[in-house]
Amino acid sequence: GNSVTQMEGPVTLSEEAFLTINCTYTATGYPSLFWYVQYPGEGLQLLLKATKADDKGSNKGFEATYRKETTSFHLEKGSVQVSDSAVYFCALSGNGGSNYKLTFGKGTLLTVNP
Amino acid sequence: EAGVAQSPRYKIIEKRQSVAFWCNPISGHATLYWYQQILGQGPKLLIQFQNNGVVDDSQLPKDRFSAERLKGVDSTLKIQPAKLEDSAVYLCASSPPAGGPGEQYFGPGTRLTVT
């Protein structure tokens, strides 16, 4: 079955530091890949996505590239802000009909200090 | 546009009691999902509805969990009887008829504590 493995947290960084959160996946076929974010006290929100190999998803300064050869979708940001403190989830889904259900990783808590 | 609504936001019950959660998806969204998020883990799909029909309930513990979406709009998830390991946040999500991969909109969740 499908599964997602992401970097264990928590991750603590200083403002303006570089962020990488690793994510690898196991799936049949050609899944779509996502990063979701959960800010304190809020619901899950889609941060970015990539639907085919070599696609790069980007949003709010975050980016991730769909690497089929390494089955990876690492999240990066060049300069984090205090407001980026949140839990980040890597996820995948199939590419059609009922296969749009999401399989999530365990989440990585990011804390950014001023 | 109003988001996905869930109630209650918090619930504390004793083991062996029953509990029900309610979800109102975004207007016009045909697909509705219920996820269980145990502390320290990612959300796990319990059940997926397309309109008022069940598409996937393979991970729903059917001996104690049930869900319905009678008119293809609101949905209710019930646990009867609850166990300690059911303590989790229950998330409802919906997606539009022509939504693509990952286009799911999540509600704030209901935090259940079973004592």
Question: Any key phrases for this structure?
Answer:
heterodimer; A: 114 residues; mainly beta; six-stranded mixed sheet; four-stranded antiparallel sheet; 0% helix; 50% strand; globular; B: 115 residues; seven-stranded mixed sheet; 48% strand
Principal-axis shape of chain A equals: globular
Oligomer designation? heterodimer
Distance between the termini of chain B: 37 Å
One letter per element, helices H and strands E, the order of chain A comes to EEEEEEEEEEEE
Number of strands of chain A: 12
Over the alpha carbons, how many angstroms does the gyration radius of chain A reach? 14 Å
Number of helices of chain A: 0
Biggest sheet layout of chain A: 6 strands, mixed
* Helical coverage of chain B, percent range: under 10%
Q: Structural class of the helix and strand makeup of chain B?
A: mainly beta
Written account of the structure:
With 114 residues, chain A is mainly beta. Chain A contains no helices and twelve strands. In chain A, 39% of the residues are buried. With 115 residues, chain B is mainly beta. In chain B, 0% of the residues lie in helices and 48% in strands. In chain B, the strands form two sheets. In chain B, strands 2, 4, 5, 6, 9, 10 and 11 form a seven-stranded mixed beta sheet that branches. A four-stranded antiparallel beta sheet of chain B has the order 1-3-8-7, with no helix packed on it. At the A-B interface, β6, β10 and β11 of A face β4, β5 and β9 of B.
Summarize the structure in short:
The complex is a heterodimer of chains A (about 110) and B (about 120). Chain A is mainly β and about 110 residues long.
Helices, strands, pairings?
The complex is a heterodimer of chains A (114) and B (115).
Chain A: E1 3-6, E2 11-14, E3 19-21, E4 23-26, E5 32-38, E6 44-50, E7 56-59, E8 62-65, E9 75-77, E10 86-93, E11 102-104, E12 108-113
Parallel strand pairs in A: 2-12
Antiparallel strand pairs in A: 1-4, 3-9, 5-6, 5-10, 7-8, 8-9, 10-11, 10-12
Chain B: E1 5-7, E2 10-13, E3 19-24, E4 31-37, E5 44-50, E6 53-56, E7 65-68, E8 75-79, E9 88-95, E10 105-106, E11 110-114
Parallel strand pairs in B: 2-11
Antiparallel strand pairs in B: 1-3, 3-8, 4-5, 4-9, 5-6, 7-8, 9-10, 9-11
